[in-house]
Design goal:
By secondary structure, this protein is mostly beta strands. The radius of gyration is 26 Å and the shape is globular.
Length: 739
C-alpha cells in the first residue's frame, strides 16, 4: 500500500526494518532515529519512494497486508494495477499502461520471472518468503534490456540476518493465519542460524516453509467465485558465507499448487452445468467437466558472489548465476469426450525455463572536480519453452501426430540473449548526470511442430532462427536545488525482440493468416520521466518527517507487435499469400502523472498517493490505417490511496484506516476485437482497517496482525480485472511467535 505503517517492536524487528526508515536529511534522520529509540523503535515507513521513479515495499508492510500474491501487494501503488482475475494463478500486472507479460520485468533474487501461457497469471511467488520489493517504473535503466517497457520489479527473499537478533545464533519463528472470505488457513515456520563469532568462514542459514489452503472466494453479494480455492506449499532455503572481503549467497525457492481450475484463470464465472448435464453425470462430475486438474511447480535458484576490497575503490564485483522455471500440467476428467483444441486439449504440459549469467563491476574514482561511479556489465540469458498437448479425438489422425503435438497457438522454442552495458554516474556539486549505453543481440529459434498440419512449408510455417540486435541509450539528470528539494529527469530509448509466441504461432493452411511471423521488426519505445522530490523534518513537530514526490511520464511506442485482426492489409494494396499471423502496428503513446506524500510523527502517520494516465493507439488494433485514433486498452483508471493511522508505543500498538478510490474508466475502444477490448467500469471506493500489536514483557516474542479488506462489503469490478467482481469483505488475522 502507499501509506506508512508503524510498528512498536523489539530489537529484531527494528533491525530488519531500519533500511526503510528515512527522513528529509542526515541531520533530521539522526534526530528522528533518536526519537524513535526513545519510543521503542516506532518510526517505520511501510511504502516509500527511495529514488526518482522507484518505490520500496518494506518487510513490515508486506506482513501488514497479509496478501495472497505479489500482484495484490503491488495493486495499491500509484501507476501499478492488478491485471486479471482474483483467482489464484490468474493475476498479472499493469504498469503505466503496459499490461503484457514481456512489458513488466520481474526478478526474484536476480532471476527473471514470467509466465506467458495464454490467459494465465505471470508471477507465482509466495509473499511470506519475501523481504522487500522495489519497483522502478518505466524503461529507464540500461542494466536491463529486451523488454520491460513498463518497468522492473525486484523481489528479494528473506535472509537469516533479517530475523536474527544481535548476538543471537539460532532462532525460530512460527506463524498462523486465517482469512474469513475463503476460510483460508496459512501456516509458516522458519529456522535461522549463524556461525559462532570468530569462525574462519562465517555463515548464516535460513529455511522457511509456508502452506496455504482455502475454500472458494465469496463476492460481496454472497455468491461463490467457483474454483478459486488455494492449495499451495512453498519452501525457501538460503545460505550465505563470508569469504573475507567476498561473500557467497545461494538460495533455492520452490512453490507448488494443485487444484481444480478453469482453463483460463483470468476469467470470472465458470459456466454452470445445465440440468441435462447434471442428470447425466451427477452434479459434481458435471461441474468438473467445466474445469481441469492443474499441477503447478515454480522454482528459482540463485548463486551470487560479490567481492569489494576496501583498499581498491575500482573493484566492486558481482557475479550472479540464476535459473528459474515454471511448469503447469493440466488434465481434464476422463468423462470428457470433446477435444478442446482451442484450450489445450484433454491434457497439456507447459514448461518455461530461464537461465542467466550476470557479471558486473562498479568502479568509483574522481577526475578533477567530477566524482564517477562507473558501472559495467555483461549478461548471457537463455529462455526455453516446451509445450505439448493431447487431443484424444485425433489418435488416428497422422496430420495431428496422432493426438500429441505442440499447441499451434503456444509454440515451443528458445530465445538466447547476449548483452553488454555501461553506466557512468557523474557528480559535480549538487548536479548529477548519468549517461548509459547497452547492446543486445537476441537469437530466437522455433521448434518445428511434430504435427504436419502445423509444420507445412506451403502454408508459410517456418521455424528457423531469427536474429534481432541493437543499442539502447539512457540519460538521467538530477539537481539538488535546496537541502529539501530535488529535481530529476530521465530520457531513454530501448527496444524488445518479438517473443517466441509472436514469431512462431501459426494457423492451419486453410486459415486467413496461417504463416509464422519471422519478419517482425523490433518493438521500440522512447521513454521520458521527470519530476520533483521534497523532504523535510521537524515540519509540524520535532522529530516528524514529510516527504512528497511528483512524477510525470510519457512513453512513445513504435512498431508495436499484435495479432492480425480486422483490416489485414492497407486498403488498395494486394494481399500477399501465406500472410503471417502477427504484424507490427504504427504504435501508441501513454502519459500520466503521479503524486506521493508521506507524513510521520511520534503518534501517527498519514499518506496520500494519486495516479492519472491516458493513452492512444495510432489508428487501432483492428485498422492501423484508420483516420480515428483509439484509446489504449491497458490504461488503468485514475486512482488515489489514502492511509491515516496512529501508534501507541507503550502498548506496542499501531492501527489505521486505508481508503482506495478509483474513478470510472470510460475511455475505452469502441470497435476492437471482443477478446482484447475491456468493458467500461464504474468508479468505486474501498475502505479497510488494520491493527498490529507487538507484545511486551512475557509476551515480547508474540505478534498479532489484524486487518479488514473491503470493510463495507462493496461489489466492484476493477477495469483491468476484465469484468471480474472483486471479493467481498475479508477479515485477516495472523499470529506469530518467536521460538
Amino acid at each position: 500500500m502507499i501509506g506508512a505503517t508503524a510498528w512498536a517492536a523489539g530489537p529484531a524487528a527494528s533491525e530488519a526494518s531500519s533500511p526503510a526508515s528515512t527522513t528529509a536529511s542526515t541531520t533530521t534522520a539522526n534526530r528522528t532515529q533518536d526519537a524513535a529509540t526513545d519510543l521503542g523503535k516506532v518510526t517505520i515507513y511501510g511504502v516509500r519512494s527511495v529514488a526518482p521513479g522507484k518505490t520500496s515495499i518494506t518487510p513490515n508492510e508486506i506482513e501488514r497486508q497479509q496478501a495472497l500474491s505479489v500482484q495484490q501487494l503491488l495493486d495499491n501503488l500509484p501507476g501499478v494495477d492488478l491485471n486479471g482475475s482474483f483467482r489464484p494463478g490468474g493475476q498479472s500486472l499493469n504498469m503505466w499502461g503496459f499490461g503484457d507479460v514481456e512489458d513488466i520485468r520481474v526478478q526474484l533474487d536476480g532471476a527473471n520471472k514470467g509466465f506467458e501461457k495464454y490467459r494465465q497469471g505471470s508471477i507465482f511467488i509466495e509473499p511470506e518468503l519475501i523481504k522487500r520489493i522495489t519497483v522502478d517504473k518505466g524503461a529507464h535503466s540500461v542494466r536491463y534490456g529486451n523488454g520491460g517497457f513498463g518497468g522492473t520489479i525486484l523481489v528479494e527473499s528473506k535472509d537469516a540476518e533479517d530475523l536474527l537478533r544481535p548476538g543471537e545464533r539460532v532462532g525460530g519463528l512460527v506463524k498462523l493465519g486465517f482469512a474469513s472470505n475463503d476460510d483460508q488457513r496459512i501456516g509458516s515456520g522458519s529456522l535461522f542460524a549463524r556461525s559462532e563469532p570468530g569462525t574462519a568462514l562465517p555463515w548464516q542459514f535460513l529455511i522457511a516453509v509456508t502452506g496455504r489452503d482455502s475454500g472458494d472466494q465469496t463476492r460481496a453479494d454472497g455468491s461463490v467465485y467457483e474454483f478459486s480455492e488455494t492449495h499451495s506449499r512453498s519452501v525457501l532455503a538460503k545460505l550465505t558465507v563470508n569469504l573475507g572481503e567476498a561473500r557467497l549467497t545461494l538460495s533455492d525457492i520452490e512453490g507448488r499448487g494443485k487444484a481444480w481450475a478453469p482453463f483460463a484463470a483470468k476469467r470470472d464465472e465458470v459456466p454452470a452445468p445445465t440440468p441435462a448435464e447434471i442428470a447425466r453425470y451427477g452434479e459434481r462430475e458435471a461441474w468438473l467437466r467445466k474445469v481441469l486438474w492443474r499441477d503447478q511447480v515454480d522454482r528459482t535458484q540463485s548463486l551470487l558472489w560479490t567481492w569489494a576490497p576496501t583498499a581498491n575503490p575500482l573493484i566492486d564485483l558481482a557475479v550472479r548465476l540464476t535459473q528459474s522455471s515454471s511448469k503447469q500440467d493440466d488434465s481434464r476428467p476422463d468423462s470428457i469426450t470433446s477435444d478442446f483444441a482451442a484450450s489445450l486439449g484433454k491434457e497439456s504440459h507447459a514448461s518455461y525455463r530461464d537461465r542467466q549469467l550476470d557479471v558486473s563491476n562498479t568502479a568509483r574514482f574522481e577526475t578533477g572536480s567530477l566524482r564517477h561511479t562507473l558501472a559495467t556489465g555483461l549478461q548471457a540469458q537463455r529462455h526455453d519453452r516446451d509445450t505439448l498437448m493431447f487431443l484424444h479425438t485425433k489418435t488416428t489422425d497422422a496430420s495431428y501426430h496422432y493426438g500429441w503435438f505442440q499447441p499451434y497457438y503456444m509454440p515451443s522454442g528458445e530465445q538466447r540473449t547476449v548483452s553488454g552495458w555501461l553506466e557512468d554516474e557523474l557528480r559535480w556539486g549538487a548536479f548529477t548526470l548519468t549517461p548509459g549505453l547497452r547492446y543486445d543481440e537476441v537469437r530466437t529459434a522455433g521448434q518445428p511442430n511434430v504435427a504436419p498440419r502445423y509444420n507445412d512449408p506451403k502454408a508459410g510455417h517456418d521455424y528457423r532462427t531469427v536474429y534481432h540486435r541493437g543499442w539502447s541509450q539512457h540519460l538521467s539528470a538530477s539537481w539538488q536545488a535546496t537541502t529539501r528539494t530535488a529535481l530529476f529527469a530521465d530520457a531513454g530509448r530501448t527496444w524488445r525482440a518479438p517473443v517466441i509466441d509472436e514469431l512462431f504461432e501459426v494457423q492451419s493452411a486453410a486459415s486467413s493468416a496461417p504463416a509464422t511471423s519471422r519478419g517482425l521488426r523490433k518493438e521500440r519505445v522512447t521513454a521520458l520521466r521527470g519530476g520533483a522530490k521534497y523532504e523535510r523534518g521537524d515540519w509540524l513537530a520535532q522529530g516528524d518527517a514529510l516527504a512528497a514526490t511528483v512524477t510525470v511520464f510519457r512513453n512513445l511506442v513504435h512498431d508495436n507487435i499484435h495479432k492480425r485482426f480486422g483490416i489485414f492489409v492497407e486498403p488498395g494494396t494486394e494481399r500477399p499469400p501465406n500472410m503471417p499471423f502477427y504484424r507490427n502496428l504504427p504504435g501508441y503513446r501513454s502519459e500520466g502523472v503521479e503524486a506521493e506524500t508521506h507524513y510521520e510523527q511520534r503518534g501517527g502517520f498519514a499518506s496520500l498517493s494519486m495516479a492519472w494516465m491516458r493513452g492512444e493507439h495510432r489508428g487501432s488494433i483492428r485498422n492501423p490505417w484508420a483516420d480515428k485514433n483509439q484509446p489504449l486498452i491497458d490504461i488503468g483508471a485514475p486512482k488515489a490511496v489514502v492511509v491515516i493511522g496512529g501508534k501507541w508505543p507503550a502498548l506496542g500498538l499501531a492501527a489505521g484506516w486505508q481508503g482506495k478510490f478509483v474513478a470510472a474508466q470510460n475511455k475505452v475502444p469502441d470497435d476492437e476485437i471482443v477478446a482484447y477490448a475491456l468493458p467500461r467500469s464504474k468508479g468505486y471506493g474501498l475502505h479497510g482497517l488494520f491493527a498490529q500489536w507487538q507484545g511486551k514483557g512475557r509476551w515480547s516474542e508474540s505478534r498479532v496482525m489484524l486487518s479488514v479488506d473491503n470493510l463495507f462489503n462493496r461489489s466492484v469490478q476493477p477495469y483491468l480485472a476484465e469484468a471480474v467482481y472483486a471479493p467481498g469483505r475479508n477479515v485477516k488475522l495472523t499470529v506469530s511467535q518467536r521460538l
